[in-house]
Amino acid sequence: MSASGxxxxxxxxxxxxxxxxxxFAPTPGEGDVHSLDGQVVMRxxxxxxxxxxxxxxxxxxxxxxxxxxxxxxxxxxxxxPGYFVQVSVPPDTKDWVEHPAQPRWTTLMRCAAFWTRIDxxxxxxxxxxxxTAQRLTVDTLDIWxxxxxxxxxxxSGGGAP
Length: 161
Prior knowledge:
By secondary structure, the protein is of the alpha+beta class. It has three helices and nine strands, in the order αββββαβββββα. The strands form three sheets. Strands 1-2-3-5-8 form a five-stranded mixed beta sheet, with helices on one face. A two-stranded antiparallel ribbon has the order 4-9. The chain has a two-stranded antiparallel ribbon with strand order 6-7. The chain is globular and about 50 Å long. The protein starts with a helix and ends in an 8-residue tail after the last helix.
């Protein structure tokens, strides 16, 4: 996927976060250099890390990515929760977003995003897999916030597999 596609994947993450009151802070420079595209800031100065991949291939049940050694190294250094997000968009960029005339405040995004947690990562795990059972929705951010709270305070209330 092109740099434009990766940017649009990050833009979707930012859109979801802002709607729920969280800020998506992109990694400075070229995000993939750090194996993390940004952070969803859920409390002042603290958040969860997110790696976003964008593809025009639809995900019917699941999609696996081979874990690059640079990804593994950086993911293993995370002190707080991290997530891998796969955004599936139509092949033609003109079909990604629609702004209907009525109602004027509506924006239709023709894409779907799926996620999985990337920490802890077992040393023998070679791939990271997202399934359609874990669709990224606004409610996902509540799960991530609970995971973050557990990581920070040690009290469980989260729900990421």
